[in-house]
């Protein structure tokens, strides 16, 4: 949606089935990372987890604690532009991984050749 012009991300979650586990704060951390990787503010509303407003740099601007009823009232400014991740997604890490694997394979072949071994054996 960011490539199509979204300036604010909204996340509504029913995470009650996680109970009182580490998943509740982890979901908040995931939302913070999403804000950073896409450079967009995230508004997060949950039934049992942390309801929060997160700025485009991943900082929690305001929040309600877990297992509390309430509402946040604040003004949020949307952002525009594309981060490298928003532009190319996972293509860059995949390309780097393939390049590393290829360079490792070439280094192995070169090492075997320098020792006089047949690289195809």
Describe this structure in words.
This protein has a 4-stranded mixed beta sheet, covered by helices on one side. The radius of gyration is 22 Å and the shape is elongated. It is an alpha+beta fold and 121 residues long. The protein has helices spanning 23-38, 84-88, 91-114, and strands at residues 9-13, 42-46, 51-54, 60-64. It is 37% helix and 16% strand. Helix 1 (23-38) links the parallel strand 1 and strand 2 (42-46). It has 2 domains: 9-87, no CATH class; 90-121. The longest helix is centred in the last third of the chain and has 24 residues, at 91-114.
Describe the protein's topology:
Blueprint: E1 9-13, H1 23-38, E2 42-46, E3 51-54, E4 60-64, H2 84-88, H3 91-114
Parallel strand pairs: 1-2
Antiparallel strand pairs: 2-3, 3-4
Overall mean pLDDT stands at 91
Tell me the count of domains.
2
Order of helices and strands: EHEEEHH
Q: Would you tell me the structural class of the helices and strands?
A: alpha+beta
Strand ordering within the main sheet: 1-2-3-4
Query: CA-to-CA gap between the ends?
Result: 50 Å
Record field, number of beta strands: 4
Question: Which shape, going by the Cα principal axes?
Answer: elongated
Query: Helical content, roughly?
Result: 25-40%
Q: Can you tell me the residue ranges where pLDDT is under 50 for at least 5 consecutive residues?
A: none
